[in-house]
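Hi L., both proteins are below.
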Amino acid sequence: MTRTDRNQRRRLAPAARQEAIIEAARLAFAEQPYDQVSMAAIARSAGASEALAYHYFGSKADLHAEVLRGVDESIAEAQAAAVAGLPADAGERERVRAYVDAYLDAIRGDGLSPIGGTNAALREEQQARLRALVGLRSGADYAVTGALAFLDAAVALWLERGAPTAQRVELADAVTGAFLGAVARPERRGKFGNRF
């Protein structure tokens, strides 16, 4: 006798199955808070068993980290393209603003942001991209870390409010200004600490 209480599952190659699970997880994490998403629901949505999802990813935390890694890669590509599309003589403010705008464009669709994650490797990659953007070879750890935390908090508030278009310019200006103010080097400051 055939069981009818199981979801019909299609056979997929392991790489395709992993991608299906990652995509189902991305959608689930975008729609609900992390603690309300279950591996069973993700697996069901991907047409896989819960055991297979655990086999490939080990835990919900590991799967979430993989989703955020993919989101971060997409955002990094969008940011690089936005900055590369600027005129060769674009200044720091224009580069940082293009970086922030590309970030806002990328996350607006699904609300997933890798900035708030606790993945140390992702955090280091994001810090390296920000340093490179304004020509910081090393150092400024507090400024770069603070800029990422500010970006995360400000964007979280914006998303909670439904990502209103009318507030986007204000948000982008605030994040850009906060970052540039935080990483201002002493030679760029005036007598009273004001930037030139």
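That was the first. Here is the second:
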Amino acid sequence: MKKAFLILPLILCSVFITQKITAESSPSQSTEIVLVSEVKWEPLNPARGDKSPQAGTLWGNRNGTEATGFLAKFVDGFSSPPHIHNVTYRAVVISGRIHNDDPAAEKMWMSPGSFWTQPKGEVHITAAKGEENIALVEIDHGPYLVKHADDAFDSGERPVNVDSSNIVWVTPHELSLNEDGPEIAYLWGNLEEGQSNGTFIKLPAGFQGQIQSKGSTFRIVTIQGNPAYHNEEKFILNPGSYFSSSGDATHLISSEEGTSILYVRTNAPYRIIPMSLDD
């Protein structure tokens, strides 16, 4: 059975509205927002017909060659046959309970906010239970294919399963004096400039402020809560919603209705700056 663990780096960090919008605080930036309510769903594995999970693309194209992020939706009681993938993927549970492991392993039902990786070539099954079971899945390059277990191979990579209860949260050093402020969890990658990495941001109830980014890739997906993105209008980012930018950008965010957890994929440091958005 896969062991749950998390490696903590020693340094700190660093609708379907497809039109481009511009944040008031940075007139030159371009931000894309995709609301989960407008995501277009299609079979993840068309060969399985009605038994296939559903997939909704947030960025990229899983049938192409580029980096891609998509939502995967599983019905209650879903269990896949043993299979492999041709590419490694990372995933975060958004709702329901999901199990992903070796075919012979006992079920380890991962709750919302859990993180796992699935190395290419390794035989595994995926199962789900709950009224609505959704995960964010991302790949560094496509195409994303499902292949028979007989095609298994050892890529040298090893899987990681981290339940939400084992996520390690830390306070960014510049916010260390704020007892009830945002927190960050480090999930994967290299935090050096120009290197890809994945983190969680936890915004406390009542948070208002900015997330300043400068990476050529900066993508955020809501995992829990209902944060708002503030622009000429206010976009409620329900779980599964997404926004992105490239280059220097300032994102005005609030979490007024409770705690929010955001998944961040980027390749440069970013800053979280609490401040009032009511002025």
